[in-house]
Amino acid sequence: MEEEAPQSELKLEPQRKEGRVWFSLKLTNFLAAISCLVLDYNKTAVLLLLLSLLMGLYTSFKIRQEDIEKLVQKFWFGLTEKGLVNIIFLMLFLRILWRPFHDFPTILCLGLITITLRNLFYLAFSVSLLKEEKALPLNSIWGKITTLSLNITMLLYALRVEKLPLKVWKIQKDIQNFSNIFMVISLLLIFATSLGYLYFYYRDPDHRKPFSVASQLTFSRIILSPVFIWVFFYDNNLTYQDNNLIFKFLALFMVISFAISDGLDGHLARKFGQVSKLGKYLDPFSDKISTMSIFLCFLASDYANVWMIALIYFREATIETLRTLAAGENVVLDARRSGKWKTAIQLTVIITILIGAIADTIIMRYWPDIPHWPQVWNWIPYTLMYIVALVTILSGVDYIIGNLKVLKRYI
User: Which of 107, 186, 207, 305 makes the best surface tag, with the fewest CB within 10 Å?
Assistant: First the structure.
């Protein structure tokens, strides 16, 4: 057995060398991009950042260099890359800040501060772990997605720096919107992955491990719920019909992602044997956070009445209280089929309303003469939300009746 380890290391060495070459080229591109931003060669900087993005995809997902690299090299490569990314964001911030007749780039400034703090904490924790011959689990899928998101964000902000002619000024506005969106997504990913790294660092050294993928998917719904609210009201107008069509599609995509992750996290937890008490409590909690955030947006945009949202909230709060009481008695509440139907109907209605809002925008833009369409569309959301409120209350009643054994301990 002792001779097998060196042989396996020898087999990995050619792949490591290939990964180091590609990674070094990526870092060289970052250095060249910084020089181009300083010298005002914006188009070249954009091309270099695009090339770096493609190289990063190749090394992370094809060669998987972070998975096979030795600890010391992994530390220096990671530190160098994060430092160069930090400098690029600083240069982009300064370039946008110094341009005349532009608002202060608040979101970019917040991102720059967050990335800088993250890098400082990365340095401190990594040095400490390196002494133990360990490393932060930066090769997790979420760590790679965070790096990818940051690279896309850099590219979009570099496009903002590029001066476009007046004919394509609207494209510039879209680029500005997308750059802000990706910065917010990157910040949330940094926050989520940082929690995972802290969890890894502060656990018992003999049992350190990152959050399971299932728990990360569950937690992502909580993290992305505020982003959905921001996307829903991106135009700072409570009337959702006035929002940009791009952001309506983005809101729909986020809700579909919520629905997929809701079904996927439980499946992954069972498949890989990662079912935990944290996951059991976190999953329903994340569902409530995401759905109630969406319903509050619907209420603000006049897609639902106050009494509908109040009844939904009352049902969810009551069931969560019942779960808490049961947990105090070490009792697991029986799952009810009505609860699954309720969740499925809620998600179906949410997606239907968001698709209807997109259809309303397209119809009013290209076929405004369709008879009675405004009246029909005003009727659809209220009717669907009425059904949701009714089903939610009925499922709550069924849940309470099915778990009277727990209530009898307190009555």
Answer: 207
